[in-house]
Sequence to fold (294 residues):
Amino acid sequence: FLLLVAGGLGGAVDAGLYWSVGWLIDILDHSSPQTLLADHWHQLAGLLALVLVVRAAVMIGSTVIEQQVVVPAFYSLVRWQSFRRVIDQPYEFYQNDFAGRIATKIMQGGEAGGDFIVTTLQTMWSFLTLFALAVTVLVSVDPWMGLVVALWFVGYCGIVYFLLPKMRRAGRATADERSIFNGRLVDAFTNIVSVKLFDRGEREHAYVREGMENFLAAVVRLTRVVTSVRASVAILNGFMMAAVMAICVAKWIAGGVTSGEIAAALGLVFRLNQMSGYMMFNINGLIRNFATVQ
Fold:
């Protein structure tokens, strides 16, 4: 719950900052240097408080919740529960797997499970909050801008929907191959006495190299999917920004918007562009973490 609150407040503060920039530009356009402070000192003080106090408090609170509450306790809890589930398995379970691979899965599972929860509850919620507030502001400036951003969001969700299954399968395969490769390395060094006594290097080298090559092939498949996702998002974002800028220019020529409204609208659109790339990076990590947990 605290992560949800912190993520929502972060998105709201971001949207408020961009709206404040447009509001400030409009005030400067309609005020003189001699009367600016006398007429708008309380509004400027509120903007200063938003930048210096509110934003800092939200960022610090979010960091404290994530790094001091969730990361130490939740990650360790997942690892401990994973260990208890694994240690209760029958003897045959350990005969059919590598000791290094099992240990790697337990360690990776704790970190992946924690990252999955933090990303879902904080980063994605912050993005959705920013999107909702951005659409609200853009619709108040011009409904067509809100429609463009809404269509962009539908396209963004479409990219996630169609490419996410491929990324999930590739991420799971990568996690499996990583644990196998790491297991072979650990087992080779664990049984180093037997390796030195009965193997001159060729067999053990080939065994480890095979694991590394399989892991590399899985990574290549995953990175190809990631490249497709990023390219699709870049093209979609380009159309969204170009459409909003065209609407802003057309409305300004017709006298329908102020310079401050244009600045606020474009600031929000550019922020959405930046956040969408960051979110896709987080979704990529989210899928990898989910595959690791699986």
Remarks:
- DSSP finds eight helices and no strands in the chain.
- The mean pLDDT is 77.
- The radius of gyration is 26 Å.
- The first helix runs from residue 2 to 29.
